[in-house]
Design a protein that fits this description.
Layout: H1 2-83
Region (Disordered): 48-69
Amino acid sequence: MQATVIKMQATVIQMQATVIKMQATVIKMQATVIQIQATVIQMQANSDASYSDPDASYSDPDASYSESAASYSEIKRESAVALK
């Protein structure tokens, strides 16, 4: 009887070891998925950064345009004052 119980316990322990191995495999797969997600996030961050550079350089002409518009309105004001 005891020999049968010990064999059953050994079988249960082997099954538990198999389950632990499977869990370890799942954890490795999850780690791989996380690495892939991190790589995707880095790629998105890189593409966003490189994409925002043209936008930044595009805003410079807008700034110079508003400065020229301001100087134009000042000239208009000064000429209106000079005409009075």
